[in-house]
Inverse folding.
């Protein structure tokens, strides 16, 4: 799962996170399943005013030391939040948008368009699977057709192999994307630059793709918060779901 090597996996029951952030904290937040509920059609997600206001207030409180770290395209999340000055790592940490407006975006793999076309053509014949095209990847969502998980994964594995792309499994989805980078490398890159450099990172996320982010937070003296049911994780704490995350963040803001 983590190409950087083995890490300690916590096996005891995870406690709730502390009610306040560390001194000089920075905050890294996953989007889907952390700030917004997972839904059947990912393109139909709606960010509530509550979330928008909360992110803006936290960003101000932390003097800009806040970034969203998501599998989605960064521009989509930027538009949903309607906020400048928030860092965003999109496409599983490969597209980095720094708070000052500068960006670091790798080239799109030459083979991606063909793989995406093959997936779109085959998916069109299977009711309930959705294709999400991104700048650096293509995702096949089967949340509305869970019986097609095996088919979806086999197709993605075959295309990853034939097109030299990275296979990225997620919750009820599988994605082909450009090789290199993950949420851990994204967190580390933010921590290399102002205003994140020298801060204590706290990372929240729900999916397996968030585990490298938890590991990066721990490696820099901070901690991760797993969102959702207990599982083997590199996070130190756990919150039950999106509503618990929002309540905890609002508490942190009031602390
Ligand atoms: Mg998530």
């Amino acid at each position: 799962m983590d190409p950087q090597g083995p890490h300690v996996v916590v096996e005891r029951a995870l406690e709730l996170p502390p009610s306040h952030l560390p001194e000089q904290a920075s905050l890294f937040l996953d989007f889907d399943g952390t700030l917004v509920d997972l839904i059947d059609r990912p393109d139909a997600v709606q960010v509530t005013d509550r979330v928008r206001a909360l992110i803006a207030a936290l960003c101000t409180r932390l003097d800009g030391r806040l970034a969203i770290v998501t599998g989605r395209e960064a521009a989509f999340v930027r538009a949903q939040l309607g906020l400048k000055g928030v860092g965003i790592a999109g496409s599983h940490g490969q597209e980095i948008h720094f708070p000052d407006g500068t960006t670091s975006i790798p080239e799109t793999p030459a083979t991606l368009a063909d793989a995406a076309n093959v997936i779109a053509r085959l998916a069109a014949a299977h009711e309930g699977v959705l294709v999400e095209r991104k700048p650096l990847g293509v995702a096949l969502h089967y949340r509305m057709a869970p019986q097609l998980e095996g088919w979806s994964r086999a197709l993605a594995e075959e295309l990853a192999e034939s097109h030299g792309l990275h296979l990225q499994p997620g919750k009820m989805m599988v994605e082909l994307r450009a090789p290199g980078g993950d949420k851990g490398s994204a967190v580390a890159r933010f921590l290399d630059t102002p205003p994140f450099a020298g801060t204590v990172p706290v990372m929240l996320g729900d999916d397996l793709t968030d585990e490298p982010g938890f590991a990066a937070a721990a490696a820099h003296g901070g901690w991760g918060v797993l969102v959702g049911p207990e599982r083997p994780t590199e996070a130190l704490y756990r919150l039950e779901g999106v509503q618990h995350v929002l309540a905890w963040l609002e508490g942190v803001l009031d602390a």
Remarks:
- Residues 149-163 form the longest helix (15 residues).
- The two ends are 36 Å apart (CA to CA).
